[in-house]
Design a protein that fits this description.
The chain is an alpha+beta fold. It contains four helices and nine strands. The longest helix is centred in the middle third of the chain and has 13 residues.
């Protein structure tokens, strides 16, 4: 399989070049990603437990869906693609942008747009990406992060705390 090519960006999130995934991660170059938070009608958040095959945070709990932008891809298009690829979810309404986080060590040097949507599941989880998933009440997630932050990918912890969780 050919290695993914990512846009490399500067501190203002302007594209300055393209590099292979491995090189971007090894050199800690700034790049782009999305995280999508899927809530159900009861206000619970769907979290995924990352596959043990993942190169970053294997086995950690994370956002409902997340991923890197391909070179030339927009944040919005990537969010829709990641929902489809990781959860098998196709939405009839646009995703809601919540906020953007600048590239930093916690995000793996990714500029991240965080999105929100509503869906009830069940989802078709991508086995190479996700070990399993579950619905959790926000208060439960906040308590879990407070007690065992190492159970989560660091980017999700930053997102949750930015949301006030």
């Amino acid at each position: 399989m050919n290695e993914e090519i990512f846009d490399v960006v500067n501190e203002r999130d302007d594209v300055i070049g393209q590099r292979p995934r491995r090189e971007v991660h090894e050199q800690r170059l700034l790049h782009r990603a999305v995280h999508v938070l899927v809530f159900n009608s009861r206000g619970q958040l769907f979290l995924q437990k990352r596959s043990l095959k993942k190169d970053c945070f294997p086995g950690a709990w994370d956002s409902s869906a997340s991923g890197h932008l391909d070179a030339g891809e927009s944040y919005d298009a990537c969010a829709v693609r990641e929902l489809r690829e990781e959860l098998g979810l196709e939405l009839a309404v646009p995703l809601k942008r919540l906020f953007k986080i600048d590239g930093c060590p916690e995000t793996g040097y990714e500029f991240v747009w965080v999105y929100r949507c509503e869906a009830e599941g069940p989802f078709a989880l991508h086995p190479e990406e996700i070990e399993r998933g579950g619905w959790f009440a926000p208060v439960e997630i906040s308590r879990w992060i407070e007690e065992r932050p190492g159970d989560f990918a660091s980017g999700f912890v930053l997102i949750w705390r930015t949301m006030g969780g």
